[in-house]
Amino acid sequence: MAGAARRDSGIARGGQGGRAAKAGSHRKGASTGSGGHGRKALEGRGATPPAQLRPGHPAQRRAAAAAAARSASAGAERGRAAAGRRGDGGRAVAAAATIGPSAVGGSAGAGRPRRTEGDELVVGRNAVVEALRAGVPSSTLFIAGGLDFDERLADARRLAGRAGIAVADVGRTDLDRMCGTAPHQGLALVVPPFRYAHPDDLLARARSSPPGLLVALDGVTDPRNLGAVVRSAAAFGAHGVVVPERRAAGVTAAAWKTSAGAAARLPVARATNLARTLVSYAAGGQFVVGLAADSEVSIDELTMATDPLVLVIGSEGRGLSRLVEQRCDVRVRIPMAGAVESLNAGVAAGITLAEIARRRRIG
User: What's the average model confidence in pLDDT over 115-143?
Assistant: First the structure.
């Protein structure tokens, strides 16, 4: 009976939900309630906001960069519209469009930076800073996060801000994906395509202020030579430069830097067929003068230097092509002493244009 009493007593104490558990029992003992004073601790903070709305979150930074790019794009569009009303065709507005919102983020790309088709990418700290200092038209500067301090990074950010270029802080992996194998060193600058004039527009400019002077390049493939020619043409009073559409250099970031900004002031046109364009220029009253190292006539003997003319310059290697040479009214050479057979297109253009300008001043 005593054992039964003890068992009954143990069952009574252990089967009451822990309200009267004896010492050493495995069941939970009595707990003191809060009396309702801890209700606020159970309310929580509400739903978690989206990643793009959380301060400091990478998605939030990408969304801010996308908004800045959209703002810059809208500003450039307004600038091009204003330039069009002024009649300059918008060449001074970087001669190109800006990158769209999808370049920095968006739901379709999961916030990864992208470039639009036709854009050129300048990568590397020195190259980017030099391009910004030269005023190369740009739409977006990408800077990778987590980089050690470098004066060139600060310079790039400052120069971009001063020029009104959108600055996007992105992850290094995103920049690696965008640049591919190019060594970007944490900096990449998006340069939109150059806006070329029509060859007929150059002829109209030349005829509006006689005697006109145009420069045509035949087969020049080095963009730095193109930039040097554009710079010399602007310095010596030419009205424009025309280049072939195929197998020739275009106005890239390298050409723009070499031109020292002259590409913003002097129109550059692309001709589908250069020989046919020269025929139309000749019909419009321009004399076509080709520069050839094997010519019998020196530029000192160029009697038509004071007349409206088109100066045609070939590549350093093969000179003028056969069809283009046939369209020339006269061929001239630069007199040289020594064993030097030829000059590159940039130097040859500068010498010849300087002589034409001199003859026109004294004429």
Answer: 83
